[in-house]
Design brief:
Blueprint: E1 5-8, H1 15-26, E2 32-35, H2 43-50, E3 58-61, E4 64-67, H3 69-80, H4 90-105, H5 108-113, H6 129-149, H7 160-174, H8 181-191, H9 194-205
Parallel strand pairs: 1-2
Antiparallel strand pairs: 1-3, 3-4
The structure holds glutathione (GSH).
GO molecular function: glutathione transferase activity; maleylacetoacetate isomerase activity
InterPro entries: Glutathione-S-Trfase_C_sf, Glutathione_S-Trfase_N, Thioredoxin-like_sf
Protein name: GST N-terminal domain-containing protein
Length: 217
């Protein structure tokens, strides 16, 4: 059987790409990668060649191409993880799905003001009131999930929810966001994953800079 292929953007910037990549890695699923450097001259041709929607991530599995990070993670869960991408408990799955949906469609100020930039670390970053509201909501959400599941991951074992919030953990680290101690531990746990370290090393090796994603203090 040939391996699935994950089509992704720059590892330094593409938060949507990190989600399925981390999920596959954490569950030890073999896959090949195609990288599309975002907003470069090569991007349009590569997008046409490898994606149905001109966006990443996309997973290609034989003749099938699945796009959008949520659909990609759900495909991975059903096709390769035997459903283990979610916990078994109905209450926890439902809380997790709500949290993932909230991440997928929400937090616009966090996304805009604190773009993922895994290789940078800022000191003295000050979030606007609206971005701070997003941060506060994520803090409350993570606390709720960790308390409900008992941890150490958001839903107990590592799940799609952690894959979805890993880019936020990365942002909190990059922009040095103040967090309660238990959540500092959660962020550290994400950053110390072997898979995250691999992603970071690859991001550091990238040479492209997307000026719009580089915050100037
Ligand atoms: N909702 C989509 C968003 C995907 C998305 O916006 N990807 C960005 C990269 S992180 C992209 O491909 N941008 C290229 C473009 O907009 O032309 C998902 O979850 O996969």
């Amino acid at each position: 059987m040939t391996q699935p292929v994950l089509v992704i953007g720059n590892k330094n910037y593409s938060s949507w790409s990190l989600r399925p990549w981390l999920l596959l890695k954490q569950f030890g699923i073999g896959f090949d990668e195609i990288h599309i450097p975002l907003f470069t001259d090569q991007m349009p041709q590569l997008m046409t060649e490898h994606t149905p929607c001109n966006k990443v991530p996309v997973i290609k599995d034989g003749d099938l191409a699945v796009w959008d990070s949520l659909a990609v993670c759900e495909y991975i869960n059903l096709r390769f993880l035997d459903g283990k991408g979610w916990p078994e408990d109905l209450q926890l799955i439902s809380l997790g799905r709500s949290a993932v949906a909230e991440m997928h469609s929400g937090f616009p100020d966090l996304r805009h003001e604190l773009p993922m930039n895994v290789r940078r670390s800022y000191t003295g970053f000050k979030a606007s009131e609206k971005a701070q509201q997003d941060i506060d909501r994520i803090i409350a959400l993570w606390q709720q999930l960790l308390e409900s599941s008992g941890g150490p991951w958001l839903l107990g074992d590592f799940s799609i929810a952690d894959a979805f919030y890993a880019p936020v953990a990365s942002r909190f680290n990059t922009y040095d966001i103040e967090l309660p101690e238990a959540l500092q531990r959660y962020v550290k746990q994400i950053l110390e994953l072997e898979a995250y370290q691999e992603w970071l090393a690859d991001a550091k090796a990238e040479t492209e800079v997307i000026v719009e994603e580089e915050v100037e203090l």
